[in-house]
Amino acid sequence: MTDEQSGWLSDKQRRRLTRIPSDRSIVATLASTGLIAAFMQTLVIPIVPHLPAYLDTSSSDAAWVLTATLVSAAISTPIAGRLGDMHGKRRILLLLLLMMTIGSIVCALSSTLVPMVVGRTLQGIGLGSISLGISILRDVLHRRSLGAAIALVSATLGIGGALGLPLSAIVAENFDYHYLFWLAALLSLGAAIAVLSIVPESTLRTGGHFDYVGSLGFAVGLVSLLLAVSKGSEWGWTSLTTLGLAVGSLVVFALWTLWELRVTDPLVDLRVASRPAVLLTNIASVAVGFAFFTTAAALPVLLEAPTGSGVGMGQSLLIASLCLMPSGLVMFFVSRPAARLSEAKGPKTSLVLGISIIAVTFVAGSLMLTEVWQVIAISTISGLGTGFAYAAMPTLIMKAVPPTETAAANGLNSVMRTLGSSAASAIVGVVLASSFVVVDGTTVPTLGAFQLVFVISAGVAIVGGVVATFIPRHDPRYDETASIPVQNP
């Protein structure tokens, strides 16, 4: 009779159960997972102008390839966070990575619009991996390693986008576009294998039942709001469709709020979410998301516009991507200094500093924008500010919520950043389309339009910075049952 048949563990099984992964390997795995999830956002940007031809559809319909990812990510992130709190964060993270892999394969096999949108929707669901990864860190890392790890994984949203864009451009310019999605499938599958092999399961669980009604209401309200914001310029801001979606979202969220306050196990604990530390951090997150997307939406247009317009810089997609890549590298290298600043002075200091850097950079940017080096400087320095802000927000959130609600709370914070990015996308699009010149049949925004974009973004950043200054330094601490860095007051 073997050891297994007699009920005894073999030496191999015993070693596996007692193997403890190092903090570095866990952080590296979750950071890599975040990078891959963020890569899904910028994956199709190089081929956007060609999507109507590739998919045999109109430009407006092809835009759903981008919109579907944005909407699905915003909806799924807090839902995945709640499920992670209830059933295990690693288990739900693996599910998200599996859906990302399936979505990538669907896109790789697609040549028409509908299956492509379905695949991109599944890819967008995987973006919840970042907030789940941050929550896993709180549960499994030693407290002395936690601050820097949170800062790094939080920054992967920006790092992955900045580094992934040149890679996507190289593949798109030299190979069939389907190879982009096969690459995405391999990366997401590799991430799932790494998580399964290295990341331990957290023993923290929250009880209760899943809030299906609240999840449905949240999804309907958020879809309506995001569509109104992201498609308003295309449909018309005063059109019945846009106004109907906007008003409908307000009504749905009002009813959803009443439900969440009365149900025993809500999707989002609004009483916790309304605490000053959580509420003000989430409001500031809107400004950070707005600023992050401003550079992503406006600067590539400026770099790639033809020089004959007197504004554009005539760079190729690949060169433009390389010009913006330092922003992601800066976010990577600033993660550890930002964590040290948070440990010494509190995460509120890091957040205010980061938003202040963004605001000053955008004010200066509104007076520049005439040379390639200036665009690189604006992108890089704003990336520095974003890195400080991204490092601070998860710690601020997790200091103010119970350990059993960290994934859901981080998911809601991610939604707020997405709302900011959606608002930036709409406003940047409207401003750049409002003042333009035509060069060889190509519409190019004027310098004044680009400057106005950065003036508006600077104003949003200033408001976010002011809000951040009111975040209280003393809040309930939930470090008795989980690892969380204790910040100095």
From TrEMBL:
It holds the Pfam family MFS_1. Signal peptide: none annotated. Its main location: membrane. The chain crosses the membrane at residues 25-50, 62-80, 92-111, 117-137, 149-171, 177-198, 210-229, 235-259, 279-303, 315-339, 351-369, 375-397, 418-438, 450-471. One of its GO terms (cellular component) is plasma membrane. It is a multi-pass membrane protein. Residues 26-476 form the Major facilitator superfamily (MFS) profile domain. It comes from Homoserinimonas hongtaonis. Keywords: Membrane, Transmembrane, Transmembrane helix. CDD domains: MFS_MMR_MDR_like. The lineage of its organism: Bacteria, Bacillati, Actinomycetota, Actinomycetes, Micrococcales. It is found in: Cell membrane. GO terms for molecular function: transmembrane transporter activity. This is MFS transporter. InterPro entries: MFS (IPR011701), MFS_dom (IPR020846), MFS_trans_sf (IPR036259).
